[in-house]
Amino acid sequence: MHPQKKQEIMDDLEDFANGQSFYQKTGRAWKRGYLLYGPPGTGKSSMIAAMANYLSYDIYDLELTEVHNNSELRTLLMKTSSKSIIVIEDIDCSVNLTNRKKNNKRNYCDPEVRCGSGSACGGEDGGNSITLSGLLNFTDGLWSCCGSERIFVFTTNHIEKLDPALLRSGRMDMHLYMSYCSYPALKILLKNYLGYEESDLDYHVLKELSDVVDKAEMTPADISEVLIKNRNYKQKAVTELLEAMKTRADRNFKCGSLRDKISDEEEQEKRALETPNEGSEFEEPCKEGENKEKMKS
Fold first, then answer.
1. Containing H/E element for 36?
2. Which of 15, 81, 156, 192 is the most buried (most CB within 10 A)?
3. What is the mean pLDDT of the chain?
């Protein structure tokens, strides 16, 4: 992670852990919510482990598809202890809690009801179901105030799929975008896995790495895999990593050019359909004996 962003998160965690008097004075529940979002492999799960290690908190990993109803969800919350991190990973995949504004009108389920896996809305099998209201109360309702010093962490790869009610301050106080590997983060990975300081690498190699890392859009997981595989051959690891990043950058450039070309073609087709061509008005066939001027028109 970029050192500056990492420091911001550490400072926020410290403020929370040392903020008992502030929360008591303001009458707020002593809890905080984090939303970690971004592409797969960018370190969301690792971030949760790092937060727990940094604060020495317990972790409760909540699997929503195994929770039968709102009452059971509330019971699980009451069983958690203080100084804990309650985690719901891939919240957009675990149960259907998608944005209500984007729901298809053909969906006859109550928009507040989101079904768990293996169940159907309105089904007769009594399948597992959790309402959106139940999850909101879990993170920011009356029952969430019972207990103290708790952190809620949600992760998702697609933040746009989540209902805005889940994202507002008070529920998810801090939104953390876990991005592709940046140059400062790359230098940290090289140090951690290969023991390379910036001064150990040739200037031209560093220049190539800095020029291509953003274009490559590789996740920390992708880069770590290359370094781990060649950790006993440091020079080879750097060379192979640079080649992999250049290959990925070229592929991204070609894919981007192709997407732009397809978008341009679609836009041109759309304009062609919306704008009638001159002289293309069709009329009924002229009857026999009508003047030639009308036929011409």
1. strand 31-37
2. 156
3. 79
